[in-house]
Specification:
There is one protein chain. By secondary structure, the protein is mainly beta. It folds into two domains: 8-88, Elongation Factor Tu (Ef-tu), domain 3, CATH 2.40.30.20; 107-199, Elongation Factor Tu (Ef-tu), domain 3. It contains four helices and twelve strands, in the order βββββαβββαβββαβα. It has helices spanning 69-74, 129-132, 168-173, 191-204; strands spanning 8-17, 26-31, 45-48, 51-59, 62-67, 82-88, 107-117, 120-127, 140-143, 146-156, 159-166, 184-189. The strands form two sheets. The chain has a six-stranded antiparallel barrel with strand order 1-2-5-4-3-6. Strands 7-8-11-10-9-12 form a six-stranded antiparallel β-barrel.
């Protein structure tokens, strides 16, 4: 589990194929930047751009993870060198500054607007209808590993358009400052919303099917 509070911006330094066939995954070598790796061991989880990955190798200031083809197909930002948001897995005694995040990317969104508004920036992202049903005004959403609050939700024929206000601090300490219209982002819906939907589905089932 994670909180969606980015601990550091690192950088994917290399992407090495794990095989020669089209289904092969890749191994990433990541420069951890300011992320403290002193308490990280092989087998621990680190979220990279919002996707939970397992550490398979460690050395000073760097770690390696293996990314399956399935994960590469369902995420963005894990297939080439570049800056990435990093967060170590949550400990039970840690402060929950964002919201409960699983590190499992639910789908992709597309940035349709990113522009200054006063001292902040407004970010608008279009998600699919399937993800849009989990979004609510003042609810939580994870964008590229960052826990954010939804300010507006609009459904239309193309999907669900939601807006977020990004304060200067968030732009300074994450990769979100580099977003541009047309860029795809990793999205994770609120964990609680997922369970609420499942409970409502169960309530609608015939008694014999429960």
């Amino acid at each position: 589990m994670f909180t969606g509070i980015v601990a550091a911006v690192g950088r994917i330094e290399s992407v090495t194929p794990l095989g020669s066939n089209e289904d092969a995954g890749v191994r990433l070598r990541v420069d951890a930047g300011a992320l403290d790796l002193s308490d990280v061991a092989i087998g621990d989880s680190i979220a990279i751009q919002g996707a939970c990955m397992t550490v398979v190798a460690l050395e000073a200031g760097h770690f390696d993870v293996d990314v399956s083809r399935e994960s590469l197909d369902k995420t963005r930002g894990l297939d080439q060198p570049g800056p990435v948001n990093l967060e170590k897995a949550l400990r039970l005694a840690d402060r929950l500054g964002g919201h409960l995040v699983s590190g499992h990317v639910d789908g992709l969104g597309e940035v349709v607007h990113f522009a200054p508004v006063g001292e902040s920036h407004e970010l608008r992202v279009r998600a699919s209808h399937d993800l849009g049903r989990y979004l609510a005004y003042k609810g939580s959403i994870v964008v590229n590993g960052v826990s954010l609050t939804v300010n507006r939700v609009e459904d239309d024929a193309q999907g669900c358009l939601f807006s977020i206000n990004l304060i200067p601090h968030t732009l300074e300490v994450t990769t979100l400052h580099a977003l541009r219209p047309g860029v795809q982002v990793n999205l994770e819906i609120d964990l609680i919303a997922r369970y609420v939907e499942r409970m409502l589905q169960a309530e609608r089932l015939p008694q014999a099917a429960r």
